[in-house]
Every structure is written in structure tokens, then in C-alpha cells.
Design a protein that fits this description.
Layout lengths: L2 E5 L7 H10 L4 E5 L6 E3 L5 E8 L4 H11 L5 E5 L3 H9 L5 E3 L10 H10 L2 E5 L1 H4 L3 H21 L3 E4 L11 H10 L4 H23 L3 E3 L2 E5 L2 E4 L2
Parallel strand pairs: 1-2, 2-4, 4-5, 5-6, 6-7, 7-8
Antiparallel strand pairs: 3-4, 9-10, 10-11
Helix pairs in contact: 3-4, 4-6, 7-8
């Protein structure tokens, strides 16, 4: 099951159009920002829509409060790459799924940050829309920023996820197209398969499990009422 985890739907009236195109090009799900109260819903187009929240804030306290407020009913929680101290705190927090690189900002992914993220399972998210919607020197700048971030993440063992960043249905790209763009960014074939097909759905399924009443904590789940089972 392949899911585009970075889609920006302007209003719920457009959700069917996004779902229809996503289904046609090979996706079984999309994660959208800000429009849903429930963690997920099923569309008629055989597409599951997941709730995503992008957290922004000027300080750690602001981020912490926002994460605490949305985590319990959200499938994907993403925070933009920012200052070193704030970003290191973000990737230490296992409630954050994605560290999203905004190429319009001058922040860079540091090796220390990527190493912390490799232990907490926070993944670097690269959205391809800024690259596809730019040209000339600015596209070259974005390409360089993406390649550097990917190289740092991969070198430290940090997961990488590719998403479309689409703001309209025609901005969606097929899984195969996203894989080709990933290889352009320097990701080799096995890792680009993981970045498009495997890691996004793994994170979604992990978070769906956490939202279920059977989940207690990492590695522990309820198997019968009144009993818990520690997974090997």
C-alpha cells in the first residue's frame, strides 16, 4: 500500500478530486493537512485519507503544547527543520513523525540532528513540489539543498520519506515518478523504494496502532482484557 503523506487540500470540497487522481496514479492513501477532525476516513475512490498536522512555533514550549494537543487524534505530525536547538528537541520527541525541509529557508540538517533522529525514528521529509515548481538558479539551489540533506540523513541512518507537497490534484505525482526524483536527489534504488513505498505506510500503521485501545507503549500491547503481552 503506497501513501502520499504530504498533500495540501485547500478545502474538503476538493478532496474527491485529489482522491480520484491519487487512485488513478497508483496510491491507496493520502495524508492531508488541517481539514479533518478524525484521524482518517475512507473515500469512494478506494482511497484512505489520513489526518496530518504541520506544527510551527518559535520555541520549544510552543511546539510541545501543540504536539500534546494534536497527537492523540492525528496520524502524521510534522515539524519544519529550524534552529539547531529546537530541531534537536523535535527529533528527540518520538511523537514527531517527520522533520520537513523547507528549501526556502536557510536551515540545514546537521549530522548530530540526523543521528538523534535515527534513534527516535523521526524521518526527514522531502516534498518534491518546490523542486518541480521552480526553475533556473532557484531550482539548482533547491536541488543542492535537498541532495545535501538526503546525504546527511542517509549517512546517519535517518529515515527519508518522499511526498508530493501537492496543492492541487494535478500536482500529484505517481510513485514511480517520485522514485525517479528520489534517485535524482542521490538516493539509491533500495532506499528510494523505502522512501516512497515502505516507510510512509510503516509510520501510518504504527500510529494507527498507537491510537487503538490495545496499545499501551512501544513493544507492549493488550492481548486480553486485564492482561498485557510484551512483544519480542
Amino acid at each position: 500500500m503506497t501513501v502520499d503523506v504530504g498533500v495540501y487540500v485547500p478545502d474538503m470540497e476538493k478532496i474527491s478530486s485529489f482522491g480520484n487522481i491519487a487512485h488513478q496514479i497508483g496510491f491507496k492513501g493520502i495524508a492531508i493537512t488541517g481539514l479533518m477532525d478524525q484521524p482518517f476516513r475512507q473515500l469512494a475512490e478506494e482511497i484512505t485519507v489520513y489526518r496530518r498536522v504541520n506544527i510551527t512555533g518559535k520555541g520549544i514550549n510552543s511546539l510541545r503544547k501543540q504536539i500534546e494537543r494534536v497527537r492523540k487524534n492525528t496520524i502524521i505530525v510534522a515539524v519544519q527543520l529550524g534552529s539547531i536547538d529546537m530541531t534537536n528537541w523535535v527529533v528527540e520527541d518520538k511523537r514527531v513523525d517527520f522533520l520537513t525541509l523547507d528549501p526556502s529557508k536557510d536551515y540545514k540538517l546537521r549530522e548530530t540532528t540526523a543521528s538523534i533522529a535515527s534513534n527516535s525514528a523521526t524521518a526527514l521529509e522531502i516534498q518534491i513540489a518546490p523542486l518541480l515548481n521552480s526553475s533556473g538558479l532557484y531550482r539548482s539551489k533547491i536541488l543542492k539543498a535537498y541532495r545535501e540533506a538526503v546525504m546527511t540523513a542517509v549517512g546517519a541512518g535517518m529515515g527519508v520519506v518522499l511526498s508530493s507537497g501537492a496543492t492541487h490534484p494535478m500536482g500529484l505525482r505517481s510513485p514511480l515518478a517520485m522514485m525517479h526524483i528520489g534517485m535524482l536527489l542521490g538516493i539509491d534504488r533500495p532506499l528510494v523504494e523505502r522512501a516512497v513505498h515502505e516507510l510512509p505506510i510503516y509510520i501510518i500503521e504504527r500510529n494507527l496502532k498507537k491510537l487503538s485501545t490495545e496499545f499501551v507503549s512501544s513493544g507492549v500491547e493488550i492481548v486480553q482484557r486485564g492482561r498485557v503481552h510484551e512483544k519480542e
